[in-house]
Amino acid sequence: MRFYQKIMLGVGFVVLAALCLGGALVAVGVFSRFVVVGALSALEQSPLTRLILLVVFLFLLGMSIYFPFSFRGRAKKTAVPLKNPLGEVEISQKAISEFVQRIGKEVEGVEDLEASIESSDEGLDVHLTLSADPKGEIPRLIDELQTVVRNYLTSTIGIENVREIKVKVAKIL
Amino acid sequence: MKEGEENLEKEVKYEVDRKVTLKLIKRVLSRIQGVYSVKKDLWRKGIRMRELEGGLGVSLALVVEEGVLIPQMAEEVQKKVSEEVERSLGISIARVDIKIEGMKFLE
């Protein structure tokens, strides 16, 4: 999800929460519904506030139409398919991440490792974030880690199309 | 008695309860090296079966042991499940789909 989508979604949730809270408070009688009606009537008095209200509500309407369409059709795959003539074989991304984390930690110099997987029609992308031991040479360590993970994904798991293995060194211990 | 009628009399019609098929599949899986368990949760059964055109379709959600070669293991599971169900129960298997849901790391 992109940054502007997060902002829009956040605004949507805040508005929804405010509406729900307001409705609940009116329902339990904490304040009268006439207060709400009165407040809205007061806002109607000024042309500027009416314009602002119009923009806000049009924005919310646009968002409610945009979001369902923006997420449709580009949902990320949660499992990676493997070739097999006898049926469909898939492996969940979670399982691959666990696997990669486990195998990556065996590389000398890798102290802490987090793995995330992205699968698309073009192939599999692996993102690794690690804490490294300062004794090891970082370029060598990254190179070894990439080789180990790639070999493992290809030979043990059977994923032929590993597109990219990105490594980020987050911390030197 | 005509030959056709004789054959009809010999034909035995029977039904196999789904539970029996399920139990047999579980037993087959327990014998395959590398399969740790069947993964099931609140929303999804670990072994699902559905009627397809060419026979029974089986979907399995599995947890496998660390170090297992997944393509080979998957093929073995597919073959053994198909063979055993067809041989023991006479039910033809159209396909066996597998989803690897997790790994069991042996300390």
Textual characterization of the structure:
Chain B: It holds the Pfam family Asp23. Chain B: This is Asp23/Gls24 family envelope stress response protein. The complex is a heterodimer of chains A (173) and B (107). Chain A has 173 residues and is an alpha+beta fold. Chain A has 2 domains: 3-71, no CATH class; 79-172, Cation efflux protein, cytoplasmic domain (Alpha-Beta Plaits). In chain A, 55% of the residues lie in helices and 23% in strands. Chain A contains 5 helices and 5 strands. In chain A, strands 3-4-5 form a 3-stranded mixed sheet. In chain A, strands 1-2 form a two-stranded antiparallel sheet. In chain A, a hairpin with a 2-residue loop joins strand 3 and strand 4 (123-132). In chain A, helix 4 packs across helix 5 (138-157). Chain A is elongated, with a radius of gyration of 26 Å. The model of chain A has no long low-confidence stretch (mean pLDDT 82). Chain B has 107 residues and is α+β, with helices and mostly antiparallel strands. Chain B has one domain: Alpha-Beta Plaits, CATH 3.30.70.1350. Chain B contains 3 helices and 4 strands; from the N terminus they run ααβββαβ. Chain B has helices at residues 3-10, 18-30, 70-89; strands at residues 35-38, 47-52, 55-65, 93-104. In chain B, strands 1, 2, 3 and 4 form a 4-stranded mixed sheet that branches. In chain B, strand 2 (47-52) and strand 3 form a beta hairpin. Chain B is globular. In chain B, 25% of the residues are buried.
